[in-house]
Amino acid sequence: TESISKTSTSVLLKNSTYSLCPLNKNDWLIDADQIELNLVKNRGVADNAIFKFYGVPIFYLPKYSWVLSGRGSGFLTPDYSSYTDEATVADASGKKEGSYSVRIPYYFNLAPDRDLLIALNYMSSRRFIYEGKYRQLIAPKLSPDHEDSIWTIEGKYLPEDKVSSLKRWLVNFSNEMDIDDKAHLSAQYYRVSDPEYFKEIDRTNTSAETLKSFLKLTYEDEENNFSTGILTEDEQVVN
Questions:
Q1: Which of 77, 81, 82 is nearest to 58 (CA)?
Q2: Residue 75 above 60 pLDDT?
Q3: pTM, whole model, 2 decimals?
Q4: Which residues of 222-233 are buried (b: 16+ CB within 10 A; e: fewer)?
Q5: 134 exposure class (CB count in 10 Å sphere: 0-12, 13-18, 19+)
Q6: Angle at 98 between CA 96 and CA 103, to 5 degrees
Q7: Sign of CA dihedral 105, 110, 111, 115
């Protein structure tokens, strides 16, 4: 940095570079006219910021803000990919037009025990997909033999597929919870709108043959050498 101004609540850097990488291993850094590190808000704000990766300028932002330490709400790195959609119509030569997708995620740090990720995903051959994933710790696990007490719900929704004109969706809910130090409840509901969802829309998990949903209640009393459980399961055939 060219100059540093410090107060009890902030640090102001002029004509400086900033990185969270280890010293002398700056894979990426921010080169900015001015960077303010606000210690009260736990935020860094850079003016006229150029992002560099291994010394190569990648992109420019007139103003950029980030969390100095720990988790914080904000945009995550966007995703871009190209693909060939087999369901689209080929041209006169029999060649299918190349397609692309752009996904922009945003992370909400709601509380120390819960968070939310939402994303807007545009597939050029299918239209917009709305995504969301919520996670919450229910309580500390009461038994060291059990899973962490947490529940997660994930959803993806395509209102109208440009190819099939159908609604396409995915729902994935999972729950692990200690009822007491002996009883534990596990649950999962995993469903998609149709068997071809992963191949045509999600473009992941294409090797899976079934999606399993279940509800399981177990009780273990080691003192009296007694254990029992109730389980119900269901499967959806995919791919």
A1: 77
A2: yes
A3: 0.76
A4: eeeeeeeeeeee
A5: middle
A6: 140
A7: negative
